Structure formats: C-alpha cells, structure tokens
Amino acid sequence: xxxxxxxxxxxxxxxxxxxxxxxxxxxxxxxxxxxxxxxxxxxxxxxxxxxxxxxxxxxxxxxxxxxxxxxxxxxxxxxxxxxxxxxxxxxxxxxxxxxxxxxxxxxxxxxxxxxxxxxxxxxxxxxxxxxxxxxxxxxxxxxxxxxxxxxxxxxxxxxxxxxxxxxxxxxxxxxxxxxxxxxxxxxxxxxxxxxxxxxxxxxxxxxxxxxxxxxxxxxxxxxxxxxxxxxxxxxxxxxxxxxxxxxxxxxxxxxxxxxxxxxxxxxxxxxxxxxxxxxxxxxxxxxxxxxxxxxxxxxxxxxxxxxxxxxxxxxxxxxxxxxxxxxxxxxxxxxxxxxxxxxxxxxxxxxxxxxxxxxxxxxxxxxxxxxxxxxxxxxxxxxxxxxxxxxxxxxxxxxxxxxxxxxxxxxxxxxxxxxxxxx
Length: 423
What we know:
- The chain is mostly helical.
- The chain has one domain (9-416): Amino acid/polyamine transporter I.
- It contains 16 helices and no strands.
- 59% of the residues are buried.
- The mean pLDDT is 82.
C-alpha cells in the first residue's frame, strides 16, 4: 500500500510557507538582532540568498526524484546509503529539536495570554494534538495549514502596513554595532527562519504531478517568505530600539508596542500563536515522511513504514516522531536550540547541493526542471552554507558531529552484522 497523491500546487506551496514563516521571525529574530543590531536586515537577506541557492538544488532534485524523504532520499539515490543514513539521522535530529523548541515557543505565547496554564502542559498538548491531526491524513493537515498560513500572512501584512507610519529613523543610526562578523552571526541564527522550504521535498509521494509542482512550490514558498521577512525585519528595527528587541523572546510583539496601539500588539501575539502552530504541524509532517523513507529502505525498522489502511498515513512513523518531540520538550535553551538546528540543517544542505551538482553528471536527462547557472548555484550553495556554519557557536558543531558519528558507527556495525548473518 502506497501513500496517496492528494496535494496540489497551492497545498504544497502553503506547506512550504507554513514551515518557513513561524518561530524564526517571531522568536529567533530577537537573537539575531542581538548579534547584528539594526543590520539584521542584511542578515535576513544573506540568509535568504544562501537559502535560494539550496532551494534551486531542492527544486531540481525534487523534480528528478519525486519520492518521500527529501535530503535523505537524494543522498541515498545519488551518493550512497552510507552517507544517506547519518544525514537522514542528522536531519531528523534537527527537526525534532526544532519541533520541541517550537512547541515551547507556542506555549510561551499561549501562557502569556492565558497565564493559568502550565507552559510544559501546553507545549506537550500542542505536540500531541498536531500528531493526532497528522494521523488523520495529509490532505486534512494541509487544509488546516492553508488556513493558518493565510491568517499569519494577513497579520504580518497588518504589522507591516501599520508599522510603516511609525518608523523612527534614529533606531537605525547605530546600524552595524558588531560589524560584518555580527551580520554574519545574525545570518547564521536567522537561517533557522528559512528551514522549512526543503520540507516540501519530503512529500514527493503525496504531491500531484511532482515533477512540475515540487520545484514550483519550493521556489514560490521561499520567494514569498523572503519578501515578508525583509519587510517584517525592517519594520521591527525601525519601530523599536534594537537593544530592547535583542533581549526579547517576542520581538515582533515588542516592536508593535512602540506604535502605542495595543490592539495591534494583541493581534501580533495571536499571529505568533498561529505561526508557531503552523510550523509545528508541517514539522511533524516532514519528520514522519523522512523516517518513513528510511524505513522503506531498510535503514530503520520496517514497522516504521507501515501505512494506515483507513487514513493512508505512515502512522507508526508519525507516532514515533511525535513521542520523541514530546520527550524533548523538557529542558531546552532557545539560543542553543536555534544554533544546533541551523547548523544541522546547513550541514544537510551542503549534501543537497552536492547531490544537485552530481545529478547532472550522473543522469543528465533525468530531471524535467533544471536550475539556472549550473554548476554555479550548487557550488555557491555548498560554499555559502559552510560559511554560515562557521558563524555558529562551537556547541552546534559538537552536537552535530556527535549525531553523525554515532549514526555512522551504528550503520557500519549493523551492516557488518547483516553481512555475517548472510554469510
């Protein structure tokens, strides 16, 4: 039994936007401002350019290999199973950590509005409810996500439209307090905000006409998100002193307070709830599909690839990823979590660009969508991702290296055991 192709171009693009616009702009923006100051707007553009190189690689690979699994299945098909397994594990690890952090981000905003609820209970409840929604079906999840995406775009548009009349130019006077290094560090952290565009590629078996729709939805979702991010970041630093935003876990809401319109602050806070829940929903979709793909290839237990006969969803994969996310809700630091997630995903994007570079050499006629400026774009993607990786704290290198090392050793030991059993 296979998965059902039920997602159209709007659904897939909406999933991409839903995965991108969320905790990154509503929460991590404050961390990036702490490094870059008002020049965070340059950090947003740099991160967007880096994401664009990789988005074209995702688009070409998604068109050529329209299967569940995203970066994992690309590495499996083009490089080798030995490389694919640790990269798949690193991607899963990054998304589980990000999902737990997003759950806590949602809970923080929720408790700020309804203070009687314990933050951990809200975070766990959000993860469990969205896990249940994913079990029911991808089309149902996509429909809910479409609504959430339209709401959060409308709220950010309101913030931009209202804020433009209240910008204080003096807030931009100390534009780059930490120089170019601060801008680059800000870009490394704000890259967290762009993580979702590759999630569409994890749904290759559930998109209609994937050779055409996958690349278009990836590029559309990133383009819309970059425009919204640049305008939102510009409004935030124009409205509020960057030193205040740098200390804030709700920078957009704190920027809105500078307008004196507390109805706008309330609407922005509600938008943060909608945005984080939307990202969490798509996060669970991507996690379950990558683990499903790894199980189909025999690199995770075969039971993880079981599909519900009623809902046509990989229910064991969804339940396993939801359970791991709930466990990791306990004891997370936002700055460290953002750095580890950004570094891990940048690492997997290096592999994506490498796969795109090798794709045309290996099977030049395989893809119906060809990214422009080959081989410049995939090579620029590799180099730019590595540069941003070096801008992130040392703990992100240590954790990601540990995940890759442990998963590689596990793969080699398992392969050795299997060969002995065959012998």
